[in-house]
Amino acid sequence: MTMKYQIDALLNAGVKSGAVPGVVAAVANREGVLYEGAFGERALGSGNAMTNDTVGWMASMTKAITSVAAVQCVERGHLKLDEPAKNICPELGHVGVLTGFDANGKPQTRPPKRDITLRQLLTHSAGFSYEIWNTDMQKVQAALEIPSVTECKNKALTLPLLFDPGEGWEYGINIDWAGKMIEKVSGQSLGQYLQHNIFDPLGMTSTAFHINADMRQRLATTHLRGPDGHLAVFPFEIPQQPEFEMGGGGLYGTVGDYLKFLRMVLNYGQLGGERVLTPEGVVSLGLNHMGDCRVYNLKAAIPLTNDAEFFPGIPKSWSLAFQINHEAAPTGRPAGGMMWAGLANSYYWADQTTGLAGVYMTQIFPFADSKSLPLFYDFEKAVYKSH
Predict the structure, then answer these.
(1) Phi then psi for 252, rounded to 5 degrees?
(2) Nearest CA to 186 among 249, 245, 267?
(3) The three-state (H, E, C) secondary structure of the chain, written as one string
(4) Domain spans, the chain
(5) What is residue 387's predicted lDDT score, i.e. its pLDDT?
(6) Is the CB of residue 61 less than 8 Å from the CB of residue 346?
(7) Sheet containing 338-342: which strands, arranged edge to edge?
(8) Which of 7, 68, 317, 357 has the most CB atoms at less than 10 Å from its CB?
(9) How do residues 173-226 score in pLDDT, each as one tens digit?
(10) How far, in Å, CA of 124 to CA of 126, rounded?
């Protein structure tokens, strides 16, 4: 069976069974696109079909793009991986480590043992977290009236650390700070920097923080799976006039655009003659940059996510942009694969060993959905089987 026949049948069945309202998926190798398919609806019951050029909220798939931009700034001499990040963003020199709460519920902190670096931010080892996986951060936000990062207000980034920089892995607002550092050294908004240095060179014409009129016409709606397992439309949108552009999760875009980004990685920093990173820079994107720290299962602390871990039991670390699996995954992905995901159940991977990359996008909460995540794994398995 051809890859197209297998994946079409799989994704079509996923829509028919109610696993997803709609899905777009694509696969490429270094030379070009091997598969594209779209099934279901942009919004359940709308009659608007998902298409290959459907725009969705990329959420944390934004992180790899912002991280590559930061590595680009390092290569160009504008940022340094291991110097104190406070040299660029002085606010990072005032962040404390959370030690507990006083009798009134006010957070107590102490100064960290060392300064936060860009490398720690890029590998999620600086100590920052997200309230969606950490109840202590919810208490901090309540006590200090700090909004969620998805509100894109500067105050959202004033959270304390959970541990001293470099002493653990904790998924959080790190890449938003990396985005702020890019803005400081480039003198541009993050969106402008990404446009000029990543999107334009790679031909990513439908990816941006701001949903323009053309993108809006192709936009898919977010959905929520209820306790009964059924999906319902659940509108959610990142602020379109934000205080800051969220480098950790603010981008909207298409599967096809994201595949161009991954093909640039597979081609060691260039696509169609446009070079974004040096080959050495891309090699670093496939290597562990967090020492002995390891990625662990994220425990859900709000209903918009389930507990989340890819390939439990397989050791995983973080490069300067991606999660890396240290052993072969059950889907057929070899050790050293690069991957991550977005909160509305979009997922991707790229692997230099076979030169394959895949992107899968639905628009569903909660994250790591009980039906959408297995469908992604089946999609990936089908890719490796038919390759």
Answers:
(1) -110, 145
(2) 245
(3) CCHHHHHHHHHHHHHHCCCCCEEEEEEECCCCEEEEEEEEECCCCCCCECCCCCEEECHHHHHHHHHHHHHHHHHCCCCCCCCEHHHCCHHHHHCCEEEEECCCCCEEEECCCCCCEHHHHHCCCCCCCCHHHCHHHHHHHHHHCCCCHHHCCHHHHCCCECCCCCCCCCCCCHHHHHHHHHHHHHCCCHHHHHHHHHHHHHCCCCCECCCCHHHHHCECCCEEECCCCCEEECCCCCCCCCCCCCCCCCCEECHHHHHHHHHHHHCCCEECCEECCCHHHHHHCCCCCCCCCCCCCECCCCCCECCECCCCCCCEEECCCCEEECCCCCCCCCCCCEEEEECCCEEEEEECCCCEEEEEECCEECECCCCHHHHHHHHHHHHHHHC
(4) 3-61+208-386, 74-183
(5) 87
(6) yes
(7) 33-40, 22-28, 356-361, 346-351, 338-342, 323-325, 316-318
(8) 357
(9) 999 999 999 999 999 999 999 999 999 999 999 999 999 999 999 999 999 999
(10) 6
* Site of tokens 């459907």: 54
- Topology of the domain covering 3-61+208-386: Beta-lactamase (3.40.710)
Distance of alpha carbon 120 from alpha carbon 166, whole angstroms: 6
Which residue, 322, 323, 321, 334, is CA-closest to 295? 323
For 192, how many CA atoms within 13 A lie in the half-sphere containing its CB? 10
CA-based R_g, the chain, Å: 20
CB proximity list for 234: less than 8 A, separation 6 or greater? 221, 222, 223, 224, 365
- Cα 267 from Cα 254, distance rounded (Å): 20
The tens digit of pLDDT for each residue in 135-178 reads 999 999 999 999 999 999 999 999 999 999 999 999 999 999 99
